[in-house]
Amino acid sequence: MNEEKNIDLEATLTDSSLKQQYEVLRESSSNEPSDQYKKGGYLTVNIGDVLSSRYTILKKIGWGGYSTVWMAKTKNTEEYVALKITKSAKAHIECSEREIEILEKINMTHSNSNGSNHFVKLLDTFLVYGLNGSHIAMVFRMLGPSLFDIISRSNQRTLHITLIKRLCLQMLEALGFLHDECGIIHCDFKPENILVEVNERDIQRMDPQSTNYNEGVLSFALNLTDPNCSINFKLADFGISQFANNRNVQSIQTCTYRAPEVFLNAGFGRPADMWSVGCVTYQLITGSKMFVCTRSTDPKFELTQHLSQMIELLGPMRLEDFHNFSHKKSAKECFDSNGIFKSYLPYNHQLFYEKIVGVERLSHQDTYQCTDFILSLMKHNPRKRLTAKKALLHQFVQYTDERSESPSELQAFPSMASFSMETSCSYIQPTNKMSKEHQYYETGSNKIKESPDVIRHLDCLQKTCSTSSQKDTNRIANSTDSERLRVNEKEETEKEHKYHPRLMVEIKHFVKTDANKKTLEYAKHFQVSKGDRIGPRKFLKELGLGCYGTVWLVHNLVDNSYSATKIINTSVTDTSETEIKILNKIRESGTEQVKNLFVELLSHNRGIGQLAQFDFLTLEFIGPTLSEVMGEIKAFHFDHVRSISKQLLCALSHLHETIRVIHADVKPQNVMVKLDANDMKKVVQKANNEIEGKESPPMFYNIDFADSKCRILVKLGDFGHSQIIKVNLKARVQTCSYRAPEVLLQNNYGPAIDLWSHGCLVYEIATGFQLFPCSFGEENLDHQQQHFGLILKTLGRVEARIYEESCVKYLCFRRKKVIGETVPDECLAQRLSYFGLSIEHAVELQRFLKLFLQYNPKIRVEAGKAISDHFHTAPHDPFSFWN
């Protein structure tokens, strides 16, 4: 067979616009091994041969370990097809027969899901007799290039992030259908087996007999850098696929995409495919393979090399993760006495994040979502990986969701931003006409029908609520419909009321059931849509969604003011009462300068009637959170880090010493950056444009975050998890990435936990990365052990005597007096310098962080003392900026 030419792709398409519209790639110049054309080997095929009296061979388009693939055309219909012709050895014939059985099972399984549309279509099968024996030929509908062709031999080499999400979505739908409805494991999920669907004209360009054929080059009408490119993917090659209930092989998957349980011969199932999805997603995002295969005659060496790469990126591998392997003799060779795999590479918890964050084309939100998506598919323990069905619910593949939530925490539900503001709440009286199927609510002459799937459809009467107005509540409840619906016509005209028919929807969230367990339950949340008006208030933008409520930016049309409404469901939490008390204390104590360190409470109300379980907190809206700003600039200027740190320490000092309160959730999402009046107008204008469907120009704040002399003012907010200082505090508080060791170990804690979180926050705003990143998942014992392991890797050894005896038994000490290894002092500074800090700044920041990142809370520096640390020496005083 002739070797194809090496084509210059840039010279092939001279028209620059054509280059943008077409995906151009070289045809493969590799040939199958010639020594495999023997008994039991490949079928000798020549261009122009007619097989089974129907299929005329046009060209070879690929080959594999046990087959060759040819482009052909049917004699009667002149339809383009792909022929897969297997080797004639008995083992390969058996594989082909199983592949046909699996493909027929897929074709015959009827489903309403989209997953059934993402597979290659088997059209025909037949036997071919040649000099080397009998060969099975499978006929498929002709498709375009494989994903491997695109990322290795095309002119574009990369896919737009939206197309990567679409690919993941379609492949998860395919695997969900394959796993759940067909009972099949693919066993070889990789870019070579994912094909792109192209149009008939593109297929004609692949035909050597076509006038549009360009030898050595394939071109397709696809622009894979365009997020709006209409593209569909098909999963192919079921040559080593297995029925889930009849797995008769142990060695599956291509080495690069092989799951750890397959390497260990510990049994495999559907989760092996999910591991491969994670590997492929990583490769598409970064442009490089996640793991490099080492070929060796020593299987043990190859195993150790590959699994060590997994451990370096994903963390320690434990014997208990592989239930079917622990009883085997070979387990002792691979795992130490503590059940930890003997890896020659240590776990580098930052390495994985650094590789993803290094991809310039990813937004801050995409970075964190795809990181979490990949990690949730690549748990060492197969039982802990997301299934295809659950992975479809992940935010990363829900790319059409336009909600603007803070992405920097890898959790199921991001922490709610600390914004609140005054609103009006509604009352409605249900009628007596209620059936099991539907309920009706009367509002004047209208009736609104509620389906069983929705909690309430309410056409609401506006009435300002007050927690102290019980008499008004009773009076309204006993009044007639006409009295309740009486509205001042003049006010109605002036305020242009628009009643919103749906104020509560059903969403899932976590609520505590006991000290150490969270369970997924349903709760009623007050929710509106962009642009809705309730009374004089126009809802512009959802600022956050938390476990117990939602937060909205609202425009008050009466006084033309802007604020934020935090709406809390008190039926599942009592945190609003504590938060209100703390905010009132802050407002009543201290100087004006100190009060300016906190987001101000303006008012609060309790709903009445059907909304009696909701609290409406009203706080000033001053601007974005530190986390949102970092989404644009990655990290703050070092002088700004000093200033922000000093302001937050002043706030914490006042909380601890004067208010006697522990904030218990210090993190970038709860620290707001103050904008000036002009920037506030830009934020509001952008929100209004989104409501009206208009395009907004890019946001440019008057604050120059790159200018060290620019003044950045911040305020601390969100006291939903705050605790009054007292003895024996053990309630689980703090977001995982900022959680102090004593909270993690369920030890008694005090104000020092805020100082630990402060150290984590300072590191994050200086580098753009979390110091102790937490993966998405339920906070179980294994999760806590992994998190404590991150701390040990960074800070070194810890003595058990620091904590209570009952606590050290709980997590990871296991009768040991000391755990962890000694970490040199300069390690943290080296990491800081890696993120772009100068050596002087890295050493200075390392010294400052160690004041807060102490295992023993008793020797952590107090907030008041840390304020005067020379780290905060700067050319200006942050308190001189306040208006």
TrEMBL record:
Entry keyword annotation includes Manganese: no
PROSITE patterns: PROTEIN_KINASE_ATP, PROTEIN_KINASE_DOM, PROTEIN_KINASE_ST
GO molecular function, one term: ATP binding
Every Protein kinase domain range: 55-397, 537-879
EC number(s) from the headed UniProt entry: 2.7.11.1
Matches recorded under Gene3D superfamilies: Phosphorylase Kinase, domain 1 (3.30.200.20), Transferase(Phosphotransferase) domain 1 (1.10.510.10)
Catalytic reaction list: L-seryl-[protein] + ATP = O-phospho-L-seryl-[protein] + ADP + H(+); L-threonyl-[protein] + ATP = O-phospho-L-threonyl-[protein] + ADP + H(+)
SMART domains for the chain: S_TKc
GO biological process: regulation of mRNA processing; spliceosomal complex assembly
Protein's UniProt keywords contain Kinase: yes
Entries under InterPro entries matching the protein: Kinase-like_dom_sf, Prot_kinase_dom, Protein_kinase_ATP_BS, Ser/Thr_kinase_AS, SRPK
GO-annotated cellular components: cytoplasm; nucleus
Swiss-Prot/TrEMBL keywords: ATP-binding, Kinase, Nucleotide-binding, Serine/threonine-protein kinase, Transferase
Binding annotation for ATP: K84
Descriptive protein name: non-specific serine/threonine protein kinase
Species per Swiss-Prot/TrEMBL record: Caenorhabditis brenneri (Nematode worm)
Lineage: Eukaryota, Metazoa, Ecdysozoa, Nematoda, Chromadorea
